[in-house]
Predict the structure of YciI family protein.
Amino acid sequence: MTRYWVAIHHPDDYDPATAEDEAMHRAIDVLNEEMVAAGVRIFVGGLEPVRRAMALRAGPDGAVRAAEGPHLATREHVAGFWVLEAANLDEALAWGRKAAIACRAPVEVRAFN
């Protein structure tokens, strides 16, 4: 079995108060329950909004500097993710499809090395 990262992406200006409703929350709960029942879910977590991120960078002098905001300047960011244990990529992609529907958002699936 291989472990897969299934990540949900949101635009930087994502506002859960206007984008999410009870039906979406229930769909995500049902998906989580299904993952647990199937024995594939290892971990699940949502992330704070990207505006609360802190980026750390080591300089040539070895000092590490912190800056407010994300490390990468993009229009989308990872909003949450699952770590799943699946038999193969096809199975992980099937879970990713369900996540895209439940979360109403783009999903990225990658295997851990």
